Amino acid sequence: MKMIKYKNIMLLTVLLLLVTVDVKAENMYYNMVDDSGKIVYTTGWKVRIGDEFITEDNNRYQITSIQGQIAYVKLLEKKDVAKLSHFFVSNFAGLLELQRVYAQDNKKIAIYHTHNDEAYVPSDGTESSDSGNGGIIKVGNVFSDALAKEGLEPIHVDTNHVPHDDMAYERSRRTVVQLLKQSPAAIFDIHRDATPPEAYQANINGEDITKIQLVVGKYGPTGKQIEEYALQMKAASDEQYPGLVKGIFFAKGGDYNQDLHPKSMLLEVGSHTNNREAAERGIAMFAAVVPSVIGVTSANNSNIEGKSGVGTPEAGISGSVKSIGWIILFFVIGTAVFLFLSTGSMREAKGKLSNFRRKEFANFWGKKYNKDKEK
Question: CB 372: neighbour CB atoms within 10 A?
Answer without folding.
Answer: 8
